[in-house]
């Protein structure tokens, strides 16, 4: 036998020499959920050990992330019911929760990269990522709101805006308004290939943002998010977002879509983010609580697989857990 593959697997020293994929704190975006109030740190039921923070505790959390080497956060807000409508008005409030959250993070930790979720669903009384019209989610009017929302986040100090809605043409609208208003250096991370996934369930619990029952609109997001059965349009969506001015593109969810990650990695020449979503987190937490899976080993295997598939960066609820293990 001339070829013995096991020679390079004999011990940890040789394995670590030949290892192709190394995970580091630089790989992560940390999603953070923000709520009104003071001293609030509430665990999300379907996301064990993951919390919503009020602004005062958000500051402390962000400082801790920085000391762990985690240098980018992705902010989401839980909007009180009485501020939800069908127009996203509260999203444009210069003193809204998101705008204050951005300032809070920058005050607590000026070097922390702040990315913000741009989407209407947390502000929508219908739980949709667009303005609900008669039998449809209205695309172009929603784009104007998303662009204004992005501008508002940029003014509050966001480094990157991250539109997660999947309306057509929104990257162009956002980029154009940011340029017109002088925010040349505010980046756009586009959720470009975002699938209509059932793995978002726990996130919708976290923000209380699930679509509601409506007469002539389905209680799902399939008219704007992509069909999990499709591959070619993921590339089309992504190339289009790049033409419209996206700086970073994203595939979401992660694990079930690693073929898409690889396709896109090979098709584009800009960074590719992958979102390991709430349901992926919940699944592992539940199985490990039952003693059916080893939490840390499975977590690391998943993260390594996402990076191996082609992710430049990973938005993950496991970021802190991973960094504790690798440092
Ligand atoms: C909505 C949005 C969702 C997520 C991020 N932004 C849910 C959805 O599309 O309904 C999901 C993230 C996760 O599940 O972790 N704009």
From TrEMBL:
<keyword id="KW-0627">Porphyrin biosynthesis</keyword>
<dbReference type="InterPro" id="IPR001731">
    <property type="entry name" value="ALAD"/>
</dbReference>
<dbReference type="InterPro" id="IPR030656">
    <property type="entry name" value="ALAD_AS"/>
</dbReference>
<dbReference type="Pfam" id="PF00490">
    <property type="entry name" value="ALAD"/>
</dbReference>
<comment type="pathway">
    <text>Porphyrin-containing compound metabolism; protoporphyrin-IX biosynthesis; coproporphyrinogen-III from 5-aminolevulinate: step 1/4.</text>
</comment>
<comment type="similarity">
    <text>Belongs to the ALAD family.</text>
</comment>
<protein>
    <recommendedName>
        <fullName>Delta-aminolevulinic acid dehydratase</fullName>
        <ecNumber>4.2.1.24</ecNumber>
    </recommendedName>
</protein>
<comment type="subunit">
    <text>Homooctamer.</text>
</comment>
<keyword id="KW-0456">Lyase</keyword>
<dbReference type="GO" id="GO:0004655">
    <property type="term" value="F:porphobilinogen synthase activity"/>
</dbReference>
<keyword id="KW-0350">Heme biosynthesis</keyword>
<dbReference type="InterPro" id="IPR013785">
    <property type="entry name" value="Aldolase_TIM"/>
</dbReference>
């Amino acid at each position: 036998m001339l070829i013995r593959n096991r020679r390079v697997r004999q011990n940890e020293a040789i394995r670590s020499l030949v290892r192709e994929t190394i995970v580091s704190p630089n790989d992560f975006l940390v999603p953070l959920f923000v709520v009104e109030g003071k001293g609030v740190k509430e665990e999300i039921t379907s996301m064990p050990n993951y919390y919503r923070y009020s602004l005062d505790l958000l500051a402390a959390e962000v400082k801790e992330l920085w000391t762990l080497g985690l240098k980018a956060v992705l902010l989401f807000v839980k909007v009180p019911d009485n501020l939800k409508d069908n127009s996203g008005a509260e999203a444009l409030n210069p003193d809204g929760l998101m705008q204050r959250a951005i300032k809070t993070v920058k005050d607590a930790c000026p070097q922390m990269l702040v990315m913000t979720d741009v989407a209407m669903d947390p502000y929508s009384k219908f739980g949709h990522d667009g303005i609900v019209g008669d039998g449809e989610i209205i695309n172009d009017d929603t784009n104007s709101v998303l662009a204004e929302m992005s501008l508002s986040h940029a003014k509050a100090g966001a480094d990157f805006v991250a539109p997660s809605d999947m309306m057509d043409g929104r990257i162009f609208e956002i980029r154009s308004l940011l340029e017109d208003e002088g925010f040349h250096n505010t980046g756009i991370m586009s959720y470009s290939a975002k699938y209509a996934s059932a793995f978002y369930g726990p996130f919708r619990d976290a923000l209380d943002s699930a679509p509601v029952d409506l007469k002539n609109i389905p209680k799902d997001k399939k008219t704007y998010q992509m069909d999990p059965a499709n591959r070619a349009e993921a590339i089309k969506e992504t190339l289009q977002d790049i033409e419209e001015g996206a700086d970073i593109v994203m595939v979401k969810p992660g694990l079930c879509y690693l073929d898409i990650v690889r396709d896109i990695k090979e098709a584009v020449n800009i960074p590719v983010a992958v979102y390991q979503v709430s349901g992926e987190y919940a699944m592992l937490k539940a199985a490990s609580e039952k003693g059916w899976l080893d939490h840390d080993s499975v977590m690391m295997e998943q993260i390594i697989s996402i990076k191996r598939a082609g992710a430049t960066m990973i938005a993950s609820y496991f970021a802190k857990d991973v960094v504790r293990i690798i440092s």
